[in-house]
Design goal:
single chain, mainly alpha, 6 helices
Length: about 150
Amino acid sequence: MNNIFLKLSLYLIAIAIFFNSCSVQIPDAVMVEYKKINRIVDFNYDVQPILSDRCYQCHGPDENTRKAGLRLDKEDLAFSKLASGSKAIVAGSLFQSEMAHRIVASDPDIIMPTPESKLSLTNSEKAILLKWIDQGADWKKHWAFIPPKKSKE
């Protein structure tokens, strides 16, 4: 009986280690902000301004300043496979999205934006990007190209 209990305990520990290694380690301060978001994150309202202000310097339309071949200003390119084989954004999967790992990293060689860029993300901005990915990373056309809808009254 004790042998079965020991095997079961070791099995459960192995499962816990596996699932812990298959997740994004979100810092507590970011998780606090993440839990405050109780709505659908809107690409044009929430995400696009962050990408534009904090990411386009290295991952935007200017090919002379672009790093790692990644563009975050075009949907098809933001979701495409990188030279490393991973993807910057995988809709609905924080674990598979390189962006999620990099924005919460503490290692200066991994974190995005890089320390050299002199840019940083607030905990709230990190939470918005993570929540957006987790909710399915719904990319929208620029608001100017979306036809207006009548309000329901």
